[in-house]
Amino acid sequence: MTEVAFFVGAIGAIGGAIAVVAMRNPFYSVLALVVHLVFLAGIFLLLRAQFIAAAQIVVYAGAVMVIYVFVAAYVGGIEEPMFDSSPMLRIVGPILAVALFVEISIAVLGSSLTALGTDGSDKIQGGFGTPEAIGKLMLEDFLIAFEAASLLLLVAAVAAIILAGRKKAQKEAA
Amino acid sequence: MDIEWYLVLSALLFTIGFTGVLIRRNPVVILLCLELMLSAGALAMLAFSRMLGDQDGQVMVLIVLVVAACEVVVGLGIVVAMFRRRLPLDVDDMKELKG
Amino acid sequence: MSAATWGWLVLLFPLLGSLLIGFSFRKIPPKVAGAVGIGAIFLAFLCGIGALIAVQGEPSESRHVASSLWEYASVGGFTIDLGIYVDPLSVFMVLVITGVSTLIHVYSYSYMQSDEGYHRFFSYLNFFVFSMLLLVLAGNFALLIVGWAFVGFASYALISYWYRRETATKAGMKAFVINVIGDIGLVLAAILIFRELGVVDYAAVFEKAPEVFSTNQWEVVAICLLLLVGAFAKSAQMPFHTWLADAMEGPTPVSALIHAATMVTAGVYLVARAHPLFELAPTAADLAAWVGVGTLLVAGTIAIVVTDLKRIIAFSTMSQIGYMFVAVGIGAYSAGMFHLMTHAFFKALLFMAAGSIISAMANRQNIDHMKGFGKAMPFTAVMLIIGALALSGFPGTSGWFSKDEIIDFASFRGGMYEVMAVGMLIGAFLTAIYSFRIIFRILPGKPCDEAQYLIDNGHVVHGEPGNPATGELEDTEVGYPGEEHHIAEQAPGMKIGMAVLGFLALVGGLLQIPGVDEVITKFLEPSFEDSIFVNSHPTVAEAWTGLGSGALISIVGIFTAWLLYVKKPGIPSRLEQRLQPVHSLLVNKWYFDEIIDFLIVNPVKAFGRFSNEIFERYVINGLTSGTVGVIRSAGGAVRDLQSGMLRGYAVLMLFGVVGLLLYFLIRSI
To answer: What is the DSSP letter of A82?
Structure first.
């Protein structure tokens, strides 16, 4: 059963990812990424990360992607030519990427770490990955990281307002 | 399922994302591909977290989620600013880093 | 409440005050800022009294309280707590610091009123008090270093307070650099302590030290010498003393608070705090005492010839801290702390009175120009006389009891300490001469123009605003002293501050009359009970003999001053001509600045020039341009491969990652 779920999720996620890269219109790329993220959330569930999966759907596929959709709609569907001005990059890039994938796969599959060959279920306790457990960790052991992350978000929000602010852009255009 | 399959999947998603960064020129799409790479990393982290039975990895993924959101906000802010100034939306035209 | 809670409150109020004033300077009017500053320090003082009561309420053996808020750092089984250590010694320091600071804040409230940077001043001042309290309350060497460095920064900020005045900013930098040398010594000492003992908490260090170290083992001597580097730099002892005289560029309340009463005594506190270590390293302790003797003599001789009012007092500060170093070096800890306290009273008082006179002189500081202030400013004159009497150890004043207690202890220990006692007696004689040189030069006689103006018009001369050191003209905007000057006769804040200190300088010594009360010794005893000197004291009779000779010396010194500056005012200038080389040696402060310039500053500068002109130009530039050439040609080669810069970098990165992974894979086969 797990195997079936994994392969369904994996195929969906890979398909979504390829579509993100291959779609010419950025708008469709965004939608493809949403698909990818939803399938990936399913895989997260298999890994007993319920809270992360939920957060992925709500925050990522929900909120963050909405921004993408807006921006993609705002800047318009610019269809770029599929053929690059520098064909070398189009050839060398994917070759190197495939090489990377092959190397990592060899490293993972050929690793002498026996734990990699298990599904890890013997180590997992009852409340693994529940919002309760994660929340406890976040607010006890990782409070500083949590606060720092919230501060970072604030800074990023301010930065975005300044970057895309209307006033300055108009002033420079005028 | 064995953990190694999750890791192989993660590697595959990562390379797809990287390929996208390399061959696309629209900054919005490049940001999307970066998201792909980040979520591939998150998948590996979750797999290890399950392998070790340690939830610290999951917290790490949450933090990565936040960092990704920040990156999106700033990145898209730059895209909008570029669009406002009528700059072409093509990373190859942003050559200020040229040495 | 427990003593530790009071200790934390002592730290809290000045920090809150500093932040509040610093962040709300646009919102609150200057008067409120001043009031907040005074209130914060006063509350800290009250909490200090709370701590005193709490500590005294405990039985004598449990008067050490360590308390920790949280772990500051925890690495591999070694933890540093954010902890404080409350015992009689730190409570004593807290009371001296907050008490004198409160009075100086009250004084500054009036003195700085016309300055444009009023908020900044009070914020800095409160921050300084916080750092100083952190320094004395710290429960381990790590936190001590934090307080130590904060204090150095606060001193820098306050010396350079008039930041548009170049001499002030330079003086601030000099003070900071020399203090940082001390900081390095302290840090190295802490590292060495950790390496040898594995702990940094005071209690643990002092408990373990006797077990680990034998007497005069090189490690403990090295630790003590490094601690002394820190202590000497902070406390302006030779050869790190040159910054203190320049630090007089700061506003007068700063000189009174930081460069007389509190910060410069931090070194003395450090030695007293680390006395278990110094008793294991008698060599280092003796060195501290000898440096103290040397400094007090050198500074005393300089103070006799310089003519800048504030610098005379600054050199006398160095000299008095020399006494304190002798005290803590020879094991007379409570005597040293007692002198620290009385010195804080009378030296702050002297600075305040000097500030009042300098204001009336329209910021001129040369005593050659001052005359007849006894008539123009009677209140200031009385305070100045009280300060000078206490400084020169006139019988009955606080300085008499405290200084002679140190000398007694030195002669009691005999041997080479006898020599130190003689040196200190000579120093006492010099002290009496230079302190009354100030009095006899500026109080009696026909009033000078500025003093006459004050008598006639009831307010001070408004000279052209300018730098007293260089005579450059200035404006009165922020970054320079304000336009209005205040003198103690008319500003209530200054009057209150000086009156209280004057009272304390007169009667503060009565706390510790040999054979009668000895409050300080008894109070501090729990802190020093592990000392090897705890049960060796001069007898009461010996103590009184010492006090008698001290009184004699001080009266003879004052008489000599009277002879030189009042009866036969021609003698000093004749001496000056007769002993021209000696005089110029003294006026130039024994050429210490020049020696340091020659030995350290110039070589460093030359090295800097060499690095810049030879090394940088040929070696580094050669390397970099060579590298650039290689990169450029490589880049040229790569450039053909790609059109987009950004993605080109990404490809290169991927290439690197792939290569690296390949390397690891091949190695693992």
So the answer is: S
Judge contact between B9 and B43, C-beta under 8 A.
yes
Distance (Å, whole) CA B53 – CA B62: 17
- Contact, B5 vs A116, CB < 8 A? no
How far apart are the C-alpha atoms of B39 and B55, rounded to whole Å?
17
Cross-chain residue pair C651–A89, CB shorter than 8 Å: yes
SS3 C370: coil
The CATH fold of domain B3-87: Helix Hairpins (1.10.287)
Predicted confidence (pLDDT) per residue in C549-606, tens digit: 888 888 888 888 887 777 777 777 777 777 777 777 766 766 777 777 777 777 777 8
Query: Searching chain A, which residue's CA lies closest to the CA of residue C643?
Result: A86
Global model pTM greater than 0.80: no
Give the separation between CA C325 and CA A87, rounded to whole angstroms.
79
> Are residues C145 and C37 in contact, defined by beta-carbon separation less than 8 angstroms?
no
A123 to chain B: which residues are within 8 Å by CB? 50-53
> For residue B64, how many C-alpha atoms fall within 13 Å in the half-sphere facing its CB?
21
Environment class of C568 (CB within 10 Å of its CB; exposed 0-12, middle 13-18, buried 19+): exposed
Instruction: Give C287-298 pLDDT, tens digit per residue.
Output: 888 888 888 888
Q: Pick the closest to residue C216 from C270, C272, C287 (CA basis).
A: C287
Digitized pLDDT (tens) for each residue of chain A, 174 residues in all: 788 999 999 999 999 999 998 888 888 899 999 999 999 999 999 888 889 999 889 988 888 888 888 888 888 766 665 555 566 677 888 888 899 999 888 888 887 777 777 777 777 777 788 888 888 888 888 888 889 989 998 999 898 888 877 655 455 554
Torsion of CA C249, C250, C256, C258, to 10 degrees: -110
Report the C-alpha gap between C163 and A119 in whole angstroms: 67
Question: Is A44 at the interface with chain B, CB within 8 A?
Answer: yes
User: What's the per-residue H, E or C state across C237-291?
Assistant: CCCCCHHHHHHHHCCHHHHHHHHHHCHHHHHHHHHHHCHHHHHHCHHHHHHHHHH
Q: Are the CB atoms for B10 and B40 separated by under 8 Å?
A: yes
Largest CA distance in chain C: 100
Q: Which two tokens stand for residue C125?
A: 């001042």
Among residues C474, C390, C403, C402, the alpha carbon closest in space to that of C436 is found at C390
Identify all chain A residues contacting C662, using CB atoms and an 8 Å cutoff.
103
Which of A89, A96, A107 shows the shortest C-beta gap to C642? A89
Query: What does R_g of chain C's alpha carbons equal in angstroms?
Result: 28
Report the topology of domain A1-80: Four Helix Bundle (Hemerythrin (Met), subunit A) (1.20.120)
Domains of chain A by residue range: 1-80
Report chain B residues whose CB lies below 8 A from the CB of C632. Answer: 99
Model confidence band, residue C471 (pLDDT cutoffs 50, 70, 90): low
The residue in chain B having the minimum alpha-carbon distance to the alpha carbon of residue A113 is: B4
* Cα–Cα distances in angstroms (integers) from residue C305 to residues C256, C346, C487, C585, C643, in the given order: 21, 21, 26, 10, 76
